[in-house]
Structure formats: structure tokens, C-alpha cells
Amino acid sequence: TGKVLTGNRERDEVETERELGRALENKVLLLYFGSGQCPRCREFSPILKDFFVRLTDEFYVERASQLVLVYVSRDETEEQQSAFLRSMPKRWLAVPFGDAFKRELEVRFAVSEVPAVVVLKPNGEVIVGNAVEEIRRMGPTCFRNWQEAAELVDRNFLLAEDFDEWSRRSITDPIRRLKYKLDKKTEEKDKGRKKECEEPP
User: Fold this and answer.
1) pTM of the prediction?
2) Which member of 33, 78, 140, 148 lies 3.0 to 4.6 Å from 97 by CB, making a disulfide possible if both were Cys?
3) Is 200 exposed, middle or buried (0-12, 13-18, 19+ CB in 10 A)?
4) 84 and 4 in contact (C-beta within 8 Å)?
5) Which positions are tagged coiled coil (predicted)?
6) Quick one: three-class SS letters along 115-179?
7) Which residues of 57-88 are buried (b: 16+ CB within 10 A; e: fewer)?
8) In what order do the strands lie in the sheet with 28-34?
9) Predicted confidence band at 63 (pLDDT cuts at 50, 70, 90)?
């Protein structure tokens, strides 16, 4: 409460409390403590990037998993933090550079070394204190365990307008979703025709 997060690559875009509430509601939250200069982080960050993309990008999944990531940097300068974030997914959020809240988070979650990924329920309870090894070992499959532990409400059961409210990421998003539905319908029709051709008279 009373804190802000910046949208990745959008210098002016600061999430308001209301937007943040919506962004974090009913989602598993990952706090990634890291640095673009730390050798261990440089080795782990591409793994985390791939993990996040495979769970949230429409190229891999029909709908984004209920997952939010916030980068809590240990970078020495704002330029270093910005450079690191430019190489990461646009959907990542970040604690603004120089915000004392970063230190509060490190203390609260007992983060002594980086990289560290703290996995939280929407209410802030810890699911995993540091999931770095779990992500390395299991990849995206470990998200299902976290989802169950977080007792998330499946978005299939949300009202259509609620789902639209949550999932609208940009002006073009409804168009992309419509295109996907049309592509899927065409695919199903093609499958149906193929089946008819294969069936003996």
C-alpha cells in the first residue's frame, strides 16, 4: 500500500494503487532479486525469462498464466537496471531504482544473496522462500504447484466482463484475442472436414 512499481521500458508508466491491485489480484507473485552485473544472475536470468515467457506468452499458451513478476534490483546504477530490464519481458514490473522499499523487501524475505526468487500468494504469504533451484530443475511445471498452494480462483469461473477487465493488456489485445478465436474456429472446421473425408462411406 502506498508503493509504486514501474512498468518495464515505460519510464513514465507508474502503476497506481488501483492498477496494481488489479495486476496482482488472484495471481502468484514472483519477486526476483538480482543484478545485471552478478555472474550467477547473468546465468540464471535467461532461464527465468524463458520460464516467464512460456507461462505468459500467447505463442506458447492459449491464455497467460496467473503470474506476475517484480524485479527488485541490486544494480549499482539506474542505467544498469534499465539495460537489464530492456533484455527481459515487457510484462515484468520493477521497484523503481533507489526506492528504499527494496531494502525492506530484502529484510522481510531474508534475502542475503542473489539471484533469489520469492514466490508469494496474492495475500503476501510465502509459498517458496527461494525458487531459483526449483525453476532450474522443473521449469514451468512448478507453476502448477504454486497455483494450487496459492488457491487461485480459476479464471474460467470469472464473469466474462471480469476476465476482459483483467486480461486487457493493450488497445490491440481484444483484436488479437478475436483473431485467435477465428483461427481456432477455422482450425476446428478443417479438422472436421478432414475427419469426414477419412470416414468410410
Assistant:
1) 0.72
2) 78
3) exposed
4) no
5) none
6) CEEEEECCCCCEEECCCHHHHHHHHHHHHHHHHHHHCCCCHHHCCHHHHHHHHCCCCCHHHHHHH
7) eeeeeeebbbbbbbbbbbbeeeebbbebbeeb
8) 6-7, 93-94, 67-73, 28-34, 116-120, 126-128
9) confident
Cβ 103 vs Cβ 67: under 8 Å = no
Q: Which amino acid, residue 197?
A: C
The interaxial angle of helices 160-167 and 173-198, nearest 10 deg, is 120
Q: Which CATH architecture has domain 5-150?
A: 3-Layer(aba) Sandwich (3.40)
Cβ-defined contacts of 127-134 (< 8 Å, 24+): 127/28, 131/30, 132/44
Each residue's pLDDT tens digit, 18-56 = 666 777 788 999 999 999 999 999 999 999 999 999 999
